[in-house]
Design a protein that fits this description.
The protein has a domain at about 105-140. Helices cover about 55% and strands about 5% of the residues. It has 5 helices and 3 strands; from the N terminus they run E-H-E-H-H-E-H-H.
């Protein structure tokens, strides 16, 4: 059986950095990522900062976050090209199979409710992501 990297998706830059591409012959084109991140500041700390400075912090965070996302996406495209040049074949997944994969994955989110996080947090995160996507990358807090 040939090595197969079905979980690369949109993390090809990591595959280059960790040299995973040297251990496989195939990868799929399913867009998957394991990247999660947040910048958290306590209300106690924010109370010490002026409203104007908070606005500046939010503006800078938005600017540099968008810049980082754009740069990472560009580098991922470059990484896929490099992986292909190294002989790894990119296989397309039937769209119906891909949809089913994501449906099952999203249903797994509910498995963590109660043990890993409260239902309210899952709902808040899900609705924030939905709002972000609907508004073209902008969310009002």
């Amino acid at each position: 059986m040939w090595p197969f990297a079905s979980d690369w998706g949109r993390a090809p830059l990591a595959c280059i950095a960790l040299q995973w591409f040297t251990r496989v012959k195939y990868m799929t084109d399913v867009p998957i990522t394991y990247g999660f991140g947040a910048m958290l500041v306590s209300n106690r700390a924010l109370k010490k900062v002026s409203a104007e400075d908070i606005r500046i912090l939010k503006d800078l965070a938005d600017k540099y976050s968008q810049s980082l996302v754009a740069k990472t996406r560009r580098q991922n495209v470059e990484a896929i090209d490099l992986i292909r040049k190294e002989g790894v074949e990119v296989l397309s997944v039937d769209p119906e199979v891909s949809r089913a994969f994501f449906t099952v994955g999203r249903s797994a989110w509910r498995d963590g409710v109660g043990d890993l996080y409260p239902a309210e947090l899952l709902e808040r995160v899900s609705s924030t992501v939905e709002e972000y996507r609907k508004n073209g990358g902008a969310v009002e807090q």
